[in-house]
Structures are given as C-alpha cells and as structure tokens.
Amino acid sequence: MLNRIHHTAIICSDYEKSKAFYTNVLGLEIINETYRSARESFKLDLALKGVYIIELFSFPNPPARTSRPEAAGLRHIAFEVDDIDEEIVRLNKAGIVTEPIRIDEITHQRFTFFADPDNLPIELYEKRSL
Q1: How far is it, in rounded angstroms, from Cα 125 to Cα 122?
Q2: pTM listed for this prediction
C-alpha cells in the first residue's frame, strides 16, 4: 500500500542556477548535498517545512526534454499556498514571470504557473475554504 509521494527528481542543466532558484527563490531547505565524482553529478536533497520533497540532480550535457505545450509524461510540480497574490508578488520581485491567475473549473480555487531555470512548469495552487 502506498503511503505518500516520497520525492520528485529533477535534472537541471545549470546546477548552481537551479540550486539558487529552488533554495533562495522558492525557499526549500537543503537536507544534503553530495557530489558524485564517478557520475560528475551533484545530488541535492531538498525539503519543504522539514518534509523531503525534491532531489535535484546535475549531469554533464543532459538531453533536452519537451516541456510544453502539454507534452506526454510528467506535466508539472505544484505547490499549495495560502495566499497566491502574496506569492506572485514575491516571485515577481525575484524576477520570476508568472502567468495570469486562473480558476480551477472543478474546485474553483485559484492557480498560476511559472517556470524554473530549465523552463520546467511549476504551479502555485491556492487552497482556500469555500
């Protein structure tokens, strides 16, 4: 029986740029950082509020992956927020462009998308009581 999602693995093209984005901009906490010399690769374990959620990898010359529009495969990662307007202002001040807010037609909750340094889509989803 499954308990929960353990983590999401992301391979980046510029390790230092992605590390700064996920830690300084998004505010994820570093649990562990390892350089694996045999693979010429960093592995950065990241947490959100103490819960391990992302493995950030670097590899020399990773192949490009189609991200948009609506390519087959894993679509995006989403973070729940209490106040989407506040988060959009914070991201915009950090130079991150966000899409216009949309309304989920089923839940009626507000959400938006932005991209990480490799143009991987990230969603902010506002969870409010109706």
Answers
A1: 10
A2: 0.88
What are φ and ψ of residue 24, in 5° steps?
Answer: -75, -40
Spatial distance between the Cα atoms of 108 and 128, rounded to a whole number of angstroms = 10
Q: What span, in angstroms and rounded, lies between the C-alpha atoms of 107 and 83? A: 16
**How is residue 7 written in tokens?**
């983590």
Give the pLDDT confidence score for residue 74 in this predicted structure: 73
- Region for residue 85 given its phi and psi (left: phi exceeds 0; alpha: psi -120 to 50; beta: otherwise): alpha
**Using CA atoms, how far apart are residues 32 and 106, in angstroms rounded to an integer?**
38
Please give the domain boundaries of the chain with CATH numbers for all domains.
1-61 (3.10.180.10), 75-130 (3.10.180.10)
Cross-strand pairs, 78: 123
* 63-to-4, 30, 72 alpha-carbon distances in Å: 29, 26, 16
Q: How far apart are CA 113 and CA 122, in angstroms?
A: 6
